[in-house]
Design brief:
34% helix, alpha+beta, 30% strand, 8 strands
């Protein structure tokens, strides 16, 4: 859409008045373009940003790792984790303020047992006691980055200059923190009952084919983890 300002010859306009007319004409053109865009597109915005699809080729550093004998996944935990990191800023040795970066992300912890080490089975009457190798977390812990939430608080004067750097520093420490949580006694205890049920079902499938099991009147399995 073209907008033109036509001034009739022979009519002398004051420079200020001529500038005002040009400004009005430009404003009318911009308004016409915005109106046309809004009419053609209901979600029209004066400024917009639209990203394309994410493209990713074959990885450049590929390492193949084999677990002799395989692994038995026994349990999983889904937890929304909250992380906070405090930063203190000083100028000439004097504290001028602080910021606190926050991150919130859903994490999935998976636990497994190696099949290759010895599994000890003891029978007492009709009770079969199974002692397994230790339960270990699968690392690194999986996180859902699509649902990652970040924000920052603290001294308002520092936030515009340090917020991005603070959040990046916090994100770099999340993987290590998740690994520590996965191996903590508290998280191991949370998954223990489900892990015991999984091992019981697994052991029973091949134990029922053994003669000692067949000779038991009311066989029962008790599971104990070596850790």
């Amino acid at each position: 859409m073209a907008c033109k300002l036509r001034i009739t010859e022979g009519i002398s306009l004051h420079p200020r008045r001529k500038g005002l007319l040009v400004t009005v004409a430009v404003a009318l053109c911009v308004g016409a373009v915005l109106t046309l865009g809004y009419m053609k597109r209901g979600d029209f915005a004066f400024w917009s940003r639209e990203g394309g699809e994410v493209h990713s080729g074959m990885g450049t550093e590929i390492m193949f790792m084999r677990t002799p004998g395989g692994l038995l996944e026994v349990s999983s935990l889904r937890v929304t984790e909250q992380f906070d990191k405090r930063f203190v800023y000083e100028l000439l040795g004097l504290e001028i303020g602080e910021t606190v970066a926050h991150a919130r992300v859903p994490a999935t912890y998976r636990y497994q047992i190696e099949l290759a080490p010895l599994w000890k089975i003891e029978r007492t009457d009709d009770v079969f006691r199974v002692v397994t190798p230790p339960v270990k977390p699968s690392l690194p812990v999986a996180v859902d980055l699509a649902r990652l939430e970040q924000d920052e608080g603290g001294t308002w004067l520092l936030l515009p200059f340090n917020a991005d750097e603070d959040r990046e520093a916090l994100l770099r420490e999340i993987t290590g923190n998740l690994a520590q949580k996965a191996a903590s006694p508290a998280y191991l205890a949370l998954q223990r009952d489900d892990a015991r049920k999984t091992v019981t079902e697994f052991v029973q499938k091949w134990l029922v084919t053994q003669e000692p099991w067949k000779s038991a009147k009311q066989p029962r399995i008790e599971v104990e983890f070596s850790n």
